[in-house]
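Q: Protein A?
A:
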Amino acid sequence: MSVVSAPVVVHADAYLTGRFDASPLRRVIDRVAGLPTVTAVDVWADVAPKTLGVPTGVAVTTSADDPMVYPTAVTDIACGFAVIATGVDPAGWSRERARHVFADVRAAIGVTSPGRIAPDVDVDAVLDGGLTALPDPTGYDPGPGAEQPPGLRGDAGLFDAGLRRLLADHAGSVSGHFVAFYTAQPLDMPDMSGVVDGELVVVVHTGAPAIRAWAYENLFGRMAGRCLDLRLVEPGLVGEHQLFGLPASDPLSQTFLRFADTAVLYGYATRHLCAEEILAALERHRPRRVAAPRLLRHTGHGWYEHRPGRLRSGRGIQPLTGPDGEARPTLVVGADRTHSYLVVPGPHGDLTGNLVGHGIPMWAHDRPVAAPPGLPDPSWLPANTPLDARLWRDGVANLELTVASLASTGVARPVVRLLPWANYKETCVDAVTRPRA
């Protein structure tokens, strides 16, 4: 068992680095850095605790002849953001009309919505190939296209017929996480990242919770038990932090990596299908248009990169550039009903490999932080969950701290502020294992 800790690099300004070092998260990350074959741990400004495994906002690298695979380094493996500029100007909609629009969208995408019509897709082909199994988008211009990793192959055969039927029904829904609507407020007019001032921008944030539930039931316990039997990780870490793993050559590790690739592919496909449903629902309200709908960005933020001798995982980590190396607008998201930002690489983005956290920071700040101008009253916004004013204020402050850190360290700079317009958060967490009635 390794007794040498890997280096921990914190990509944050002095204030957030200090807050991180003083928090319990630092001790968790130090334990991660001491795990067998871990050779590097990178931490971003929006690092935050999770109920299981490695915190979000963290990338872990393992390197060896037979590097370890740690399944709880990324449990929400299929998650990502599809960010679409809708071309809709919502300024002419009254608050009552906005609520009608939101209700129609909710009916079209809610995982348990009785009126939702599941798309007619070959779910086995989707699990094997993701977006490559689907027709080109009809509701929006894909532009440079979604950034589904090329060459990735899934394995539909991992799952029984019942789970595949459930996944077919969940496709195109918000089966976990949220869909958020914003109006665009460009901050840098020469670099508006393809948005029109005031247009409606939609963010689809979902993945594959039913696949994740399958892994919890069928893989995690077996992998943890085998890890303990082989004495690869000390029992206290397995019990307290659910940190366990097996060498990449182990058959259970190989199954886990196939599961991870399959989940990623399904996540890309279901976000695209959900976006198409949302755009169709908006169009039914005959909105005033300032542009055609177009994809700004579609990329994952839960991933494993695996090649011989090296694995790297990212939980809540996403690229600032596309597969072609060109800068792309990247979402750094806030909390429920707060604002968010689109950012682009800063002058020192290369220091992080042009990677950035996905947002949703949870820092307990200890100094006043001013809210940006123009934020709407959150109590006016269409939403399906109750407003917690204290959490909203903290969310605003913590997002501002995170984006200020990105800017001051030169990792990324904000170019568009996204002002909240409506928010749908999936609350039916048990739906991941049960079909609709």
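Q: Protein B?
A:
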Amino acid sequence: MTLTQLRILRELARQSFSISAAAAALNTSQPGVSRQLQQLERDLGTSLLIRRRNRVVALTDAGRAILKTAEQALTSVENIRAIAVEASGAPAHFTVATSHLHARYSLLSPIGAFARRHPAVRLHLVQAAPEAILAMVEAGEAEIGVSTETVRQHPDLAFLPGGTIARSLVLPHAHPLIRERRITLDAIARYPLVAYSFRARGGQIMEGAFQARGLTIDAVVSAMDADVVIAYIAAGLGIGIVPSMAVAADLPEGLTVIDVTRLFPDSRLTLSLRRGIYLRPHMADFIQAVAPAWTASAIQGGLGSQ
């Protein structure tokens, strides 16, 4: 049994049992992946994979148990490498996967403070959709993910909640809703809306709030990014709801904002990390810069809890 075989087993599971996708992710050949998996089963003396018509479709019970332990072993190996790199004094490279919203607004100030404290650390920001962010963290392609909280279960990840995300209604100065004494979802639903895409977590939260009241919105345009939503509101296509951080610094002329956070379920910035990962000092400092309530000991506890 080798680490290469365990990495292939892990990648096969991550790629929904597609041997071609696993081979591509590992930069190797499909026959090579198949041979390594067969050799692993021979070495262990048990079947790990359920095959149908020469296709892998699932793991056996033993395969699931072995994969869980293999993932822990591979994380330990990666931690050993991280400790060695840190001890060598080599420049640190640090990848954070996040959305456009958080890269543009939430992280701007914390990353500035982080860069001043760790000038030798090379920080790479990778923008991605919510599930892609978590997939990158799970795969070890990013050390930390920063997103709005997820609704799916990811048992291999630890989630550290940060600050609450406030929401604002953006509308023209002369819009009839300006005269409303108390804004409601029912009132907002009467007008054309420039909406957040349902692919974005913020869009899912907002659409869910309207649906819970039995309301259908007239979404004339939908977009993934807050600045795009605001631009189309400024162009006169409708009104919209965006995270307040997107309008705090720069609002186009002719628009105004009304806080509507109370109309939606609580929503928080959330950091994600792989459980059991070796927490290098600069990683802890980054987390504390983004979510100051997390002390180093609390972060360690969050990473180790199940």
